[in-house]
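Quick one: structure tokens for this chain, please?
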Amino acid sequence: VQLVESGGGSVQAGGSLRLSCAASGYTYSSYCMGWFRQAPGKEREGVAAIDTGGRMPFYTDASNGRFVISRDNAKNTLYLQMDSLRPEDTGVYYCTSSKDQTYCGLSLSPTYWGQGTQVTVS
């Protein structure tokens, strides 16, 4: 199983980034997917999540209206479009997947994790 993130980088406040996560080695379309962030000195927290069909996204109050999570089940890929970035969005962003069939949301329990991609907003 692999989750490989890409698209991180350094941007100025107000800028945009698009993260991608390429999944392989499992039945991607059957898993709830999410993005977590670990800011310096803080615990990992859910930023956005999306159901198996890609029809129901979940956001925090901070990410709602600025971030858009989406998935392409034909390409086994998860995305996070981040606009109007703020310094507090800085951190390592992790792609996660959960096999839990009873719950999909910001508190999902990840089955698999990616290696993370750094996002720095100054």
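The two ends are 34 Å apart (CA to CA).
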